[in-house]
């Protein structure tokens, strides 16, 4: 399902994640082959044996594209290799492989928030000429234009989108129906539902959120800020917004959720939130949509037929969605020694029409016109995107987020006051902006 024209204006930037941070599928791959789709990969065979190393983290939404790439493009003199890795490992390896002139990888899975940073540093290969050369053969114009723009910087395309992910709220419909609850549309309603489940079900921690101190907590704070109508930096004045009333309110509203969450929440990434939902210790969780299909699989949880999906609530009534949208795609690192044309054709093959169709319901593909009626969460993604507020797609976003992570964590854990945290965030952001000016 393509993003509508109305939705397009809302995608000026994406999710914040820190950039510091299974049997074989074809020759050389160690990932599962059940999500691989056989597609045409019609590159010109190189004269010598060539190994293409792909760096991409494993998740239900990414694997269909990676596995298709490995399965379909490993032929003749070409071997496409991908080793399983989690997101944190990918972040570290991306940093390492781009830090010298001799990188270890030839194709990188990237996401829109890092494109501006990496593109401005010259760490990624511009793809405009290759896109123009191969667009007819691979029908690349059918990849959503706005998603392509989010994978661009300063007018240059640095990534070919494969899929989008937006924040979605998963909840246990059986428990909600049992206690006469409706899906929350505000933080207050989410707290009320959590309290009801604590009292009536004896569920100690009914709410699960991704507040991992080294990454996800920054996304959550930014989601709260955007829901209240603010971005990190004012687009007109270029001044940071951390001393604003909204910045304080974002902290206060997040802190008010703590009585309903596991005390170890600042150690929880998306897989840990999934696990809370899998085992029934939580009844609500907010994650990126690429993680949602896992909740519907009987092999993962006995509650697989009891999950329903809606857009995340707003912090306050009438506010924007507590969420952001991220576009995942494929990039070519500047330091690969392999033929760029060959690498581009491998990328283009993995995001073709057949591969995109086969990725549903695990993914929300970037290609326009793909039928997503089989997806249990696509409607929630559409609604989540439709109510997103203004978001940033600027070079300052990543460095400010990285500097903010420990400060946000200390405020949420009570080690620093809200007021002190605001002042520290403002000072950190001011330094980033000064360094970039």
Task: List the main descriptive attributes of the protein structure presented here.
437 residues, alpha/beta, D-Maltodextrin-Binding Protein, domain 2, 2 domains, nine-stranded mixed beta sheet, two-stranded antiparallel sheet, 16 helices, disordered N terminus
Q: What is the number of helical segments per DSSP (H or I, 4+ residues)?
A: 16
**Count of strand segments:** 11
Q: What portion of the residues fall into strands of 2 or more residues?
A: 5-15%
Q: How many strands, what sense, and barrel or not for the largest sheet? A: 9 strands, mixed
Q: How many domain units?
A: 2
CATH A-level architecture of the largest domain? 3-Layer(aba) Sandwich
- Fraction of helical residues: 25-40%
The whole-angstrom Rg is 21 Å
Which structural class best describes the helix and strand composition?
A: alpha/beta
Low-confidence stretches: 1-32
Structure report:
The chain is α/β, with parallel strands linked by helices. It folds into 2 domains: 223 residues, Periplasmic binding protein-like II (D-Maltodextrin-Binding Protein, domain 2), CATH 3.40.190; 204 residues, 3-Layer(aba) Sandwich (D-Maltodextrin-Binding Protein, domain 2). Helix content is 38%, strand content 12%. The protein contains 16 helices and 11 strands. Strands 1, 2, 3, 6, 7, 8, 9, 10 and 11 form a 9-stranded mixed sheet that branches. A two-stranded antiparallel sheet has the order 4-5. Strand 4 and strand 5 form a beta hairpin. Helix 2 crosses helix 12 and helix 9 packs across helix 10. It is globular. The two termini are 40 Å apart. The relative contact order is 0.20. The N terminus is likely disordered.
